[in-house]
Specification:
The protein contains three helices and seven strands, in the order αβββαββββα. By secondary structure, the protein is α+β, with helices and mostly antiparallel strands. The protein has one domain: 2-Layer Sandwich (Alpha-D-Glucose-1,6-Bisphosphate, Chain A, domain 4), CATH 3.30.530.50. The strands form two sheets. The chain has a five-stranded antiparallel sheet. The chain has a two-stranded antiparallel sheet with strand order 1-2.
């Protein structure tokens, strides 16, 4: 009986250790969440898209669908709330191309790739409109 109790306790402790933890955000911060889940979408764009066009497009999309409350123009990162989800977005230069990283976290620390994908698509459409003006 004591062996079964010990094994149950060991399994519960290991499960709790695996499911809890901290997740790094794209802006360099830490948030509570499950580190075992993929929560980022990466998109790479060629010319004529510049970092300024990508950043302004991302900013416009996040203001339209949610509440933009964090903007860093030095590191090109944005932070917003869409419904109850927290969105982290980073625009960076990658070998002459523009790389956009979209990360979405739910209230309890889980990932929401569906919303990240939707935001990524809207940014791509907005960038297309801006470059064709």
């Amino acid at each position: 009986m004591t062996k079964r109790l010990f094994l149950k306790t060991l399994v519960c402790c290991c499960g709790a250790a695996i499911l809890s933890g901290c997740v790094g955000t794209v802006d360099g911060g830490k948030r509570m969440g499950n580190p075992m889940v993929n929560d980022k979408i990466l998109s790479l764009y060629d010319a004529p898209v510049t970092m300024d066009i990508a950043f302004q497009s991302a900013k416009k999309v996040l203001m339209e669908i949610g509440n933009l409350y964090g903007e860093n123009t030095i590191t090109y990162t944005l932070e917003a709330k869409v419904d109850t989800r927290t969105v982290f977005l980073k625009v960076e230069d990658s070998e002459g191309k523009v790389l956009i990283t979209t990360q979405v976290r739910a209230k309890g620390g889980g990932a929401d790739l569906t919303l990240a994908s939707e935001i990524d698509k809207r940014i791509a459409i907005e960038m297309t409109l801006r470059t064709n003006e």
